[in-house]
Design goal:
CATH topology: Metallo-beta-lactamase, Chain A
Number of strands: 17
CATH architecture: 4-Layer Sandwich
CATH class: Alpha Beta
Strand order of the largest sheet: 2-11-12-13-14-15-16
Protein name: MBL fold metallo-hydrolase
Distance between the termini: 44 Å
Pfam families: Lactamase_B_2
Helix content: 10-25%
Number of domains: 1
Structural class: alpha/beta
Organism: Pontibacter cellulosilyticus
């Protein structure tokens, strides 16, 4: 689709390093962020079709009472080990080189969507967090109550976020320091032992009636001399996975979304299904595969156990190497994953 160049501009944080050669910044078309060169708007008619169409797996879903198991306790907070800990949905605690990160923290139920799983500990027990990473501003990834709670108990916290998402943080926690990045940019707030890069994802933004694609979305790579850790955020399948591996090297740990993919006519340009998640992981030349974005909130039509069952089948067939399915709150020690 051709675009009038008068309506196109590029945006990045000029104070940050950009690792893709000659990259001008994220393309903004008619005031809206694009997926590379393509504007994407979720089609309301497809949402309406979803609401009016009977789910062919409705009865199966109704009988499916799967929820992820939970390992209770907060020892992972006080441990000195480098680790990855799933907190449910797309929320993770990560320690690298002794630096504590929390990613996309959503610690409570959402408006109209009840959380199905417990946390391993109380939200106020999540202490000594150095950095909060937010992949995008959809409500199941950026929750203002969770951010307020974490910042209240972690006054040293700094946030690493996409372009324009600072507008939400200023209204949420006025004194929370943050740094915005565009795709292919390296944040400069993190001590030198860990590098954090904001990388592409194929997704979209909307929180209100008039802010469609006014804020950026993306993924993260956390890089040390020994390890590359990739957090996919929300994304559809696309060429960005291979590009990320080409720019930053194979991803030793890949945190990949596997849920909220049915009906495909609605979800295919927003989320990965399990087969696509495995394909993307292979494009990333991945090591350990840690699934997320399933089991915590009911956001789609597939039965809750289906995403897990499919990735287990792919692992058994040899298509997926390195699958780890931790309980919520179960530490995956990085020394054991390499």
């Amino acid at each position: 689709m051709q675009q009038n160049n008068n309506h196109i501009r590029h945006h990045k944080n000029d104070r940050l390093e950009t690792i893709k050669p000659d990259y001008r910044g994220n393309k903004i078309i008619k005031g809206k962020f694009a997926n590379g060169d393509e504007l994407y708007y979720p089609d309301f008619s497809k949402v309406l079709k979803w609401q009016l169409t009977r789910n062919p797996q409705r009865e199966e879903k109704k009988r499916d009472d799967y929820v992820p198991s939970v390992k209770h306790g907060c020892d992972f907070i006080t441990s000195k080990e480098d680790m990855v800990v799933w907190l449910g949905h797309a929320s993770f605690f990560v320690r690298l080189k002794g630096i504590n990160f929390i990613i996309d923290p959503v610690l409570f139920s959402l408006p109209l969507v009840k959380r199905k799983t417990e946390l391993p500990c109380q939200p106020e027990q999540l202490l000594n967090i150095d950095f909060m990473l937010l992949s995008h501003a959809h409500r199941d990834h950026l929750d203002q109550q969770s951010i307020k709670t974490i910042f209240k108990h972690n006054p040293q916290l700094k946030a690493l976020i996409p372009l324009e998402v600072g507008k939400i943080l200023r209204n949420t926690c006025r004194h929370l320091p943050y740094q915005e990045a565009g795709w292919y940019q390296k944040y400069d707030l993190v001590p030198g032992a860990v590098e954090v890069y904001f990388m592409p994802a194929m997704h979209w933004h909307r929180r209100g009636l008039s802010d469609m694609n006014k804020m950026l979305w993306g993924s993260f790579v956390l890089k040390t001399p020994e390890l590359n850790l990739y957090f996919a955020g929300d994304t559809a399948i696309g060429p960005h996975f291979e590009e990320i591996a080409d720019l930053l090297g194979p991803m030793d740990v890949c945190i990949m979304p596997i849920g909220a993919y049915k009906p495909s006519f609605l979800m295919a340009k927003s989320h990965l299904n399990p087969h696509e998640a495995v394909r993307a992981y292979n494009y990333l030349r991945g090591g350990t595969f840690v699934p997320m974005h399933y089991g915590t909130f009911d956001l789609s039509d597939e039965p809750p156990s289906e995403p897990v069952r499919v990735v287990q089948q792919l692992a058994a067939a040899g298509v997926l190497q390195g699958l780890k399915l931790p309980a919520i709150g179960e530490p995956l020690l990085l020394k054991d994953l390499q």
